[in-house]
User: Fold this.
Amino acid sequence: MENVTGLLRVRVVRGVNLAKRDAGDSDAYVAVLMGDQEIYDKDTLTQDDKMGDAELDIQQFMEAVKMGLADLPKGFVIETMRPSQQNCLAGDSTITSKDGTIAQDVVLQLRNVESGEVELQLLWVSVPGAPDF
Assistant:
């Protein structure tokens, strides 16, 4: 883990109005793609039907991390991202200071499926002793 300055924690809060693909219920899962890394949640994958997809550009989040704004008062809004045709945001998403770090609460509208949203929380975790950006 040489040259690591921190970790991006992606917390899946919940799925809302997800498409049903199995008899009576859905066994949805989340896959996070970052560059050439692919990370799945703890569910085991099966040959399920597609549950939709969404993209989130984290460039503004990472810019807030690089600015070193984590020491602002808890809940201080650093930036607000708004839904547009270039993103999958279901509503406004704020980047805030939270307990000495940077956080973002996000609701993404799923694409390529008849319905569904996924609520995420991004949190930057600094590595003690690591160099700043």
Observations:
- Helices lie at 59-66.
- The beta strands are 6-16, 31-34, 37-40, 77-81, 93-98, 101-109, 117-126.
- The two ends are 15 Å apart (CA to CA).
- The chain is about 5% helix and 35% strand.
